[in-house]
Amino acid sequence: MIAEVLGSPAGDALIFPGFQATAMFARIFRFNDSRFWLMLALNILNAFLVYAMQTKPFTVAAQLGIGVVALINALAGMWLLAQLAREPVKAGNAGEALSRTPVDPQDHADPEHDAQKDGRG
Fold first, then answer.
1. DSSP classification of residue 111
2. How far apart are the first and last CA of the chain?
3. Chain CA centroid to CA 58, Å
4. SS (H, E, C) 21-72
5. Residues 6 or more apart from 83 whose CB is under 8 A from it?
6. Is the pTM of this model over 0.70?
7. Cβ atoms of 3 and 18 closer than 8 Å
8. What pLDDT shows up at residue 2?
């Protein structure tokens, strides 16, 4: 099953047993990660290659060449998708940025700096 392959933790909103949709989307949609943008570019390039193969008259050799490049692009895009889905979300990625609350500056105040500013130090 997909959940066992990706190693997703069990959650509330289950699509497959052991598969939490929000955690998976947070793992895939990482706008700060270059692998996400490379995966997106490969998939768009693959769509254009397949469209060109279906609409333009090419020779057999050109069709084979474009087909091989499209297949390699599709496999590379799927490999990047699997890499993003397996890796846990790190701080600063899109998934965690959506779930974090704003930090109150008073929570992280430096006591020594405050004492010097108030004339106590």
1. H
2. 62
3. 35
4. HHHHHHHHCCCCCHHHHHHHHHHHHHHHHHHHHHHCCCCHHHHHHHHHHHHH
5. 35
6. no
7. yes
8. 47
Q: H helices then E strands: how many in the chain?
A: 6, 0
List CB contacts of 66: < 8 A, sequence separation 6 or more: 49, 52, 53, 58
In angstroms, the CA 27 to CA 84 distance is 6
- 43: tokens are 């998939």
> What pLDDT is attached to residue 70?
94
Q: What is the tens place of the pLDDT at every residue in 53-90?
A: 999 999 999 999 999 999 999 999 999 989 988 888 76
Distances 100 to 93, 97, 103, 104, 112 between C-alpha atoms, Å: 11, 6, 9, 12, 28
What is the C-alpha separation between 82 and 66, in angstroms, rounded? 24
| Residue 88 contacts residue 27 (beta carbons within 8 Å) | yes
